[in-house]
Amino acid sequence: MVDDSSSSAASTASLAQIPQRLAEVRRRIVEASADRGPDAVRLVAVSKGQTVEAIRAAWDQGQRDFGENYVQELVSKAEQLGDLTDGGLRWHAIGRLQRNKARDVARIASVIHAVDRAELAREIDRRASAADRRATGRNASAAARLEVLVEVNLGGEAAKGGCAPAEVGPLLDAIAGCPNLVVRGLMTIPPETDSPEEARPFFRALRELRDRHGGAAALPELSMGMSHDFEIAITEGATIVRVGTAIFGPRSRAAARPQ
Ligand SMILES: *Cc1c(COP(=O)(O)O)cnc(C)c1O
After folding, report:
1. Ligand 1 pocket, 94 CB below 6 A?
2. Residues near 158 by Cβ (< 8 Å), separated by ≥ 6?
3. 104, 154, 178, 181: which sits with the fewest CB atoms below 10 Å from its CB?
4. Residue 181 half-sphere exposure, CB side, CA atoms within 13 Å?
5. Distance (Å, whole) CA 64 – CA 66
6. What is the sign, positive or negative, of the torsion defined by CA atoms of 65, 67, 72, 73?
7. Per-residue pLDDT tens for 70-129?
8. How many other β-carbons are positioned within 10 Å of the β-carbon of residue 233?
9. What does the alpha-carbon distance between residue 106 and residue 148 come to, in Å, rounded to a whole number?
10. Residue 94 CA, closest ligand 1 atom number
């Protein structure tokens, strides 16, 4: 049990550490992607369970892409940070999505990482006309089409979202029929392992799956890699890494597990 004064002192300390932690993550990304040139990898700062002050601290260091898992939290933060949204902050919806949340996500997010079934894609599409998104999402720069990634469940884990590898083709076809969506690539969350190296086969499998579905020309983005394994994901071809605790420190509540 910690009392209020000590827990707020702890969160102040970690706020002050964000610039340095972010710089360190960036340095490690540059190092891991050295053979692929600058800007080969985009960093999404995963801010679930973190405060809006923490997001502002990263923003002040030039961070523009932020990831959230839970729709209510995304809605509330986008509201509190309307000035940043207007200023070019890009929200990435990275969590498992229910169809009845598609409307809020479609109006706020710039990229949706966890599309894993055709009904969900069609519902997001229905809610995602650029005009609607500009009118209701304070998202003045809403692109003509909303970017989505197909989440693949490579570990066959029942508790996690993502489609089976064999479903990727039909799902890509379904998204191609959605006029307000554009599919940019694939995303995966490997099973939890003790050592980061054990995640490598899953990262490689996602790249090989992408190569069987038109390669980088059709699916330029591979969203894979988190705090404990992003360098391995980068060496296997990640173009987007989703990093939370390495930047922000521990999350305040049990927003904890990727799902
Ligand atoms: C929480 C989460 C992350 C970030 O995890 P860290 O270990 O804090 O870097 C990345 N991706 C998804 C889908 C998540 O849920």
Report:
1. yes
2. none
3. 104
4. 30
5. 7
6. negative
7. 999 999 999 999 999 889 999 999 999 999 999 999 999 999 999 999 999 999 999 988
8. 30
9. 10
10. 13
pTM as predicted: 0.92
Ligand 1 center to 135 CA (angstroms) = 30
Cα 189 to middle of ligand 1, angstroms: 9
Atom of ligand 1 nearest to the CA of 245: 8
Token pair recorded at residue 156? 């066959």
Beta bridge mates, 43 = 241
Environment class of 5 (CB within 10 Å of its CB; exposed 0-12, middle 13-18, buried 19+): exposed
* Ligand 1 atom nearest 246 alpha carbon: 9
Q: φ and ψ at 98, to 5 degrees?
A: -95, 150
The residues, any chain, with a CB within 8 Å of residue 230's CB and separated by 6 or more, are: 25, 28, 29, 32, 238, 241, 243, 246
Could you report how far apart the first and last alpha carbons of the chain are, in Å?
A: 28
pLDDT in tens, 112-135: 999 999 999 999 999 988 667 766
Q: What is the amino acid identity at position 151?
A: E
- Which residues sit opposite 148 in a β-bridge? 112, 183
DSSP 8-state code for residue 199: G
Report which residue type is found at 13. Answer: A
Joined together, the tokens standing for residue 185 give 């690539």
Contact present, 15 and 55 (Cβ < 8 Å): no
Q: How far apart are CA 108 and CA 213, in angstroms?
A: 29
